[in-house]
Amino acid sequence: MKLFTGPLSMFGAKAQIAALEKGIAIEAVMVPFDRDDNYEPKHPEVLRINPKRQVPVLIDGEVEIFDSTQIFEYLEDRVPDPPLWPRGVAERARARQLEHMSDEVFFPHVIKLMGLQHDMQGEAAVAACAACARFHVQMEHRLVHGDFLAGPYSFADIAFYMAQVFADRKGAGMTDATPRLLAWRERVGARPAVREVVGPMMRFLASEGRPVPSSLQSHLGQAASA
User: What is the pLDDT of residues 42-64, one digit of tens each?
Assistant: First the structure.
């Protein structure tokens, strides 16, 4: 099984973590990445398989798919145990919705911040940070009765963990206003599969002379073995 991803691909990291959590042997192919955060030149396999021209792309024999959520679903079907969606129909639906919200509701605010690093006190950046903070509060409420966002540890946790990593990098990190969520971040971040993927990302940032947020400094050490 081969995964085309990149050194700072949030969506690729989601897929890598999921594979590691399931004990799936996977070859991560890092596509070219330039200083302007562009994946250039485009890898020919990425161009061939994904009309959106983006990573991640997964190849498993005759199966060729793209999009981190679709890869999640494929990995779950391919290796059902350990499960990374809840077993119950309603619980699974809630977890899937949370995974979708991380990508499509929360992360767009982070994308806005990526283009506003020169003006973090401006109206647009302040509004994006406030939107991230409101989402943090929503996730805080999800943790009132458990350690993870949707019952057992799931793809929902993987998705939001990676999204908040990038939010923290771009100035919209968590605060003491969400103590349960801070504890959740420590629990998820300590998982060997997460450390194995996030560690190289943080070391890549450091090697490029880019800042690594204090909450992610622990990932600069030797990556754990999943």
Answer: 899 999 999 999 999 999 999 99
Query: 89-220: which CATH number, 3.40.50.1360, 1.10.287.1490, 1.20.1050.10, 3.40.50.11690?
Result: 1.20.1050.10
Residue 2 phi/psi, 5-degree rounding, is -125, 130
The CATH number of the structural domain formed by 2-78 is 3.40.30.10
DSSP string, 199-221: HHHHHHHHHTT----GGGGGGGS
pTM above threshold 0.85: yes
48 class by beta-carbon count within 10 Å (0-12 exposed, 13-18 middle, 19+ buried): exposed
pLDDT digits (tens, 9 = 90+) for 56-86: 999 999 999 999 999 999 999 999 999 999 9
